[in-house]
Amino acid sequence: MDFKTLSDTEVKSALELAWDVFQKYEAPDYSEEGMNTFHGCLKDADFTSMLKCYGAFDGTKIVGMIATRSEGTHIALFFVNGSYHKHGIGKKLFSMACADNKSGTFTVNSSPYATEVYHHLGFIDTDTQKVQDGLIFTPMVCKFK
C-alpha cells in the first residue's frame, strides 16, 4: 500500500472514490437534496481547489482518501473503499493529515456513518446532529498535539 499527497490530476480519482463510497454507505441515510448537495460539492471547482488531498493506493488504484481545508484544520472528505475497511488505511491517512496540521486541532462535520470512526480517532462531539441542505452531520473536534 502506498500513501501520498495527491497531485491535481490524482484528485479527480479521489473525488470519484468519495462519490462511490458515499453512494454505498452514506446515501441510504440521505434525502435526494442531501445527495445532490454532496455531489455538487464534489463537482464544484471552487470547493475542490481549497482541498489538500492525501491518498492510499493499492498498485495504481486509489482505495482511500482524506481531504483537508481551512489551512489543514478541517477534514472536508474522508473515504475508504469498503473492501479496504478495517485495514488501518483511514488511520494512516489521518496520521498524514495530522503531520501537516500545525494547529494540533481538527474539526469535522461527521456523517452518521462515520461518527464511530471519528470517535475511534479521538474526536468528540461539539454539538448534536444537524441537517443543512439535506446533509446530516455531527460537528466534532479532535486535539492531537
From TrEMBL:
InterPro entries: Acyl_CoA_acyltransferase, GNAT_dom, N-acetyltrans/Recomb-assoc. Residues 1-145 form the N-acetyltransferase domain. PROSITE patterns: GNAT. Gene3D superfamilies: 3.40.630.30. Pfam families: Acetyltransf_10. SUPFAM superfamilies: Acyl-CoA N-acyltransferases (Nat). GO terms for molecular function: acyltransferase activity, transferring groups other than amino-acyl groups. CDD domains: NAT_SF. PANTHER family: ACETYLTRANSFERASE, ACETYLTRANSFERASE (GNAT) FAMILY PROTEIN. This is N-acetyltransferase domain-containing protein. It comes from bioreactor metagenome.
